[in-house]
Each structure stands twice: as structure tokens, then as C-alpha cells.
Amino acid sequence: VKFYHRPPSSLFRKENVAELTDVVPRPMSRVECKPGGHVSLEVLRIVPRSAHRALQEAAGRVLGQAIELGVEAVDVEDLCLGARELGADTLHKPGAVAALERAAAAGKVEIVEKLVSSGVLVTAAAARAAEQLATPHCVALAYQLLREFAKPAG
């Protein structure tokens, strides 16, 4: 791992301030920088670029399976945290979106709220699925999903 300092006035100049070779996993510890200062670094795992896409797709499938198996909302939130380690766009992949739609169709309000707050992409199909159940909680959920769906991306 190399750390660089790049002053705004020198856009293409990179001054190497720290370099480190270590094993993974690496516990949280300090890395001293030149000419002074330090950064904290923790490395949990390294994912080969070639496996990244498959892992993102698998994360969505696991979310869907967890919902079908009746996992608690707090556990779904933990799964979302793990999925986000693969990148924020992981929760925008079709598998994660399908998991949200399944949870909405099953009327699992708390799980839907956890998925949305974790960053799963909201679709109009998820709102329609919740609305189809026609219970007061699910109609309110459908309204909440539609409001989230209508928000500008950003």
C-alpha cells in the first residue's frame, strides 16, 4: 500500500509519504508518514477484481434468501453492511432490488425499511407489491416507497 500527498497546486505530482508491505488481514495500526504524521490502516480482505462482480450478485441473492427464510430485520441490516463493503452500488444490483420487492410483497415492513435505509435501490415495483396487500401498514409502506422512488438521484 502506498500513501501519496498531492498538493492542489501540483495536480500531477505525487509525493510518496508512506509505503507498507504487510499480510492480510492486518489489524488496525498506525503507519508513519514522511515528513511527519501518521494514518491508521486496517485491511480486512482483498478481493480480486475478477471476482468483484460475482460477489456483488451473490450478495443480492443472499439478501433474497434471508428474507425468504424469515431472518430478522437486524440481521438483514448486517447483511447489507457486508454487501456495502463490496461498494455502494452493490445494493443497486438486480438481486438486492429483487430482495426489496420480495420483502414488500410479503408485507415485511421493518425489513423493507432496513433495506431502504441501507441503500437498496427503490423501485415502483416494490411500492406496487406493498400496495397489493391492501393492509393499512402496507399501504403506508407503499406510499413511503413511492416517495423514496420519486426522490432525485444524488
What does this structure look like?
This protein is α+β, with helices and mostly antiparallel strands. The chain has 6 helices and 4 strands. It has helices spanning 49-68, 73-84, 94-105, 109-118, 124-132, 136-150, and strands at 2-5, 15-19, 26-32, 38-43. Strands 1-2 form a two-stranded antiparallel ribbon. It is elongated, with a radius of gyration of 21 Å.
Furnish the topology, listing elements before pairings.
Blueprint: E1 2-5, E2 15-19, E3 26-32, E4 38-43, H1 49-68, H2 73-84, H3 94-105, H4 109-118, H5 124-132, H6 136-150
Helix pairs in contact: 1-2, 1-3, 2-4, 3-4, 3-5, 5-6
Q: Which strand order spans the largest sheet, edge to edge or round the barrel?
A: 1-2
- Main beta-sheet strand count, sense and barrel state: 2 strands, antiparallel
In angstroms, what separates the terminal alpha carbons?
31 Å
- In percent, how helical is the residue content? 40-55%
Report mean pLDDT, rounded to a whole number.
Answer: 83
The low-confidence runs, each spanning 5 or more residues with pLDDT under 50, are none
Rg calc: 21 Å
State the shape.
elongated
Q: How many strands? A: 4
Structural class: alpha+beta
How many helices does DSSP assign? 6
For this entry, give a set of tags.
single chain; 154 residues; alpha+beta; two-stranded antiparallel sheet; elongated
Give me a quick take on this structure.
This protein has helices spanning 49-68, 73-84, 94-105, 109-118, 124-132, 136-150, and strands spanning 2-5, 15-19, 26-32, 38-43.
